[in-house]
Design a protein that fits this description.
The protein is an alpha+beta fold. The protein contains three helices and ten strands; from the N terminus they run ββββααββββαββ. Strands 1, 2, 3, 4, 5, 6, 7 and 8 form an eight-stranded mixed beta sheet that branches. Strands 9-10 form a two-stranded antiparallel sheet.
Length: about 170
């Protein structure tokens, strides 16, 4: 995995963005890897939901991400927008539709995937897990917006700039 950004998050938690294996010619997909959990938010989402009723939904999410990376790109209609204070924060839903992965949509060529969960409440704010996952995405897009040494490449498929690869591990 290629580390491209190393910043503080939520009470000093450190994270970096890494290119995800579902990236392809149509879209580069980054994931948020957290030092503290020694895993990405997306892989944690897969681990947490694998042995639940959402197993088929996980397969659908992976299939959708693979298609986004190699066939279609990140078309806006694949995502649900408009519920958060930053319009780039969204989610990719799966069948069953109450399983969701929170994302940052930057373009059809570039997205960041985080974690997610099944939604069993009327409002995501009423669920601690969903609130945590949305909070991560809001923090990541805020950190990206505040970093003057990170930019999207001219072709739109990757981040570039003064990248940090060395980060503390415990």
């Amino acid at each position: 995995m290629l580390a491209i950004l190393d910043v503080n998050l939520h009470n000093g938690k450190k994270y970096y963005l890494a290119k995800h294996q579902t990236s392809g010619d149509k879209c580069t997909i980054y994931t948020v890897a957290v030092h503290e959990i020694k895993n990405s938010l997306f892989n944690r989402f897969l681990d947490e939901n694998n042995a639940t009723n959402y197993h088929s939904g996980l397969l659908d999410v992976i299939s959708r991400l693979t298609s986004i990376g190699s066939k279609t790109g990140a078309l806006r209609e694949f995502f649900k927008f408009g519920q958060w204070r930053d319009e780039r924060v969204c989610y990719l839903y799966a069948e069953p539709p109450d399983l969701r992965v929170y994302c940052i949509w930057l373009s059809e060529k570039l997205i960041i995937i985080g974690g997610g969960a099944g939604k069993s409440v009327a409002k995501w704010q009423d669920d601690i897990k969903l609130t945590e996952e949305v909070s991560w995405m809001i923090q990541v897009i805020t950190d990206l917006s505040n970093k003057s040494d990170i930019a999207i490449s001219k072709d739109g498929y990757r981040f570039e700039g003064n990248l940090k690869f060395n980060y503390e591990t415990t």
